[in-house]
Structure formats: C-alpha cells, structure tokens
Specification:
heterodimer; A: 6-stranded mixed β-sheet; B: mainly beta
Chain lengths: ~110, ~130
C-alpha cells in the first residue's frame, strides 16, 4: 500500500518559517491535503489540492508538491500554530482509499 | 456551515459490536455531492480511515477492516452510522465522522479531502 513519510517533529522559533515534509513515491502526481490537529481537538484542513487554502486559514500557510515530496510551509510562526500536522492523499491501489501520514508535531520554541 | 456530531457508547466489551452515529446539522446530508466517512485515531497515534458512504448507499471500506465494518446512511434522519463487529482492545480510539468533498470531472470523480469533522468520540474496548 502507499506510504506517506513525515518527520515526527519540527521545532521552530516564533516569527520563523516551519517546513513540514510529506514523502511518497511520485507524490507529485497526487493531490495532497494537509490537516492541523491541536490537542483534544478534531483535525482542521489547512491546505487542499497541494496549494489551496480554505477560507479562514491564514495566508501564512502554504503548500507545494513535486517529485517525491510535498511540503507544508508555515511562515511567521505563532505560538498558536503548535499542533500536529497530517498529510493525506488518496490511492486507488492501496488497501485503504485514503492514506494519512503519521503526523508531524510542530513545537514553537 | 455544516456540523457533525458523533454519538454512541463510550465503552464496548471485547467481541461485541461498536455502534456509532453521526448526526449532520446545518444542511441536508443529501445535498451537494459529498461522501461521509468514519476515521479513527488511537491515543497518541495517527489517523486511520475506516470507510465512507454516499447518500445513494454506495460504500468503500478500509480493506483491513472490511470484514468487520458496515457504514450506513439514513437520509430521513440526516445521519450516517458505523458498526464495527468483533472488537478488541486494538479498536480503542477516538472515532471521528467527517464530510469528504470529492473532485468531479465531466464523466468521473476521485476521492478528495475532508472539509468538516465531528468533535470525535472516545470508544474504549474493555471488559
């Protein structure tokens, strides 16, 4: 089945830029969606179709996808951005239609 | 703004059937062209998709759970449901219901993203 690989953790100082990667075989040919999950809360979509932002999500959140890596970038990081972030794709050859990465914990120093 | 709310027992005995309901408010479950999914998350772990249903009754399931899972919909009550049979401790998790927005083409569609989620409900499997 298709596997998405995320780093377990990323640390970033306030005001700096955080980059969260999501690796997968030829992931650039797939559509990648990103979710933010704060402790005790349900996930919230922050990026869909690689680069699109839902209404209400700050412009500081952006995405890219090429080759074997998709990336979620958070610019001018704020304390409130501390959360787990998950990437997601769909894969017709997989045992499960929807595949999630294992998640990346973003810590704001 | 659509809202989803999970409900059901928080404690299920091993070998029994887990049953959850997701009530949709703020819009008709039949309006638009959405799929309705169940996703779970064991404590401290990642997200696992369980299955989805369209209002026509068409379903897709996680192959690893397929033999134990049934997702159904009741459009008259604006809700959809999950049944997971023969549960074990490994099924202990927070269960979320979510709305999926597929991508439509002129003659087909492909699975998309989850744009609305319920708050989640913890189900513990224990005797």
């Amino acid at each position: 089945s298709y596997v998405l690989t995320q780093p377990p953790s990323v640390s970033v100082a306030p005001g700096k830029t955080a980059s969260i990667t999501c690796g997968g075989n030829n992931i650039g040919t797939k559509s990648v969606h990103w979710y933010q999950q704060k402790p005790g809360q349900a996930p919230v979509m922050v990026i869909y179709y690689d680069t699109d932002r839902p209404s209400g999500i700050p412009e500081r959140f952006s995405g890219s996808n090429s080759g074997n890596t998709a990336t979620l970038t958070i610019s001018r990081v704020e304390a409130g951005d501390e959360a787990d972030y998950y990437c997601q794709v769909w894969d017709s050859s997989s045992d499960l239609l929807f595949v999630f990465g294992a998640g990346t914990k973003v810590t704001v120093l | 703004q659509v809202q989803l709310q999970e409900s059901g027992p928080g404690l299920v005995k091993p070998s029994q059937t887990l049953s959850l309901t997701c009530t949709v408010s703020g819009g008709s479950i039949s309006s638009g062209s959405y799929y309705w999914s169940w996703i779970r998350q064991p404590a401290g772990k990642g997200l696992e998709w369980i299955g989805r249903i369209y209002t026509s009754g068409s379903t897709n399931y996680n192959t690893s759970l397929k033999s134990r899972v049934t997702v159904s919909v009741d459009t008259s009550k604006n809700l959809f449901s999950l049944k997971l049979s023969s549960v074990t401790a490994a099924d202990t998790a927070v269960y979320y219901c979510a709305r999926e927005s597929p991508r439509y083409f002129y003659d087909s569609s492909e699975p998309g993203y989850f744009d609305s989620w319920g708050q989640g409900t913890l189900v513990t499997v224990s005797s």
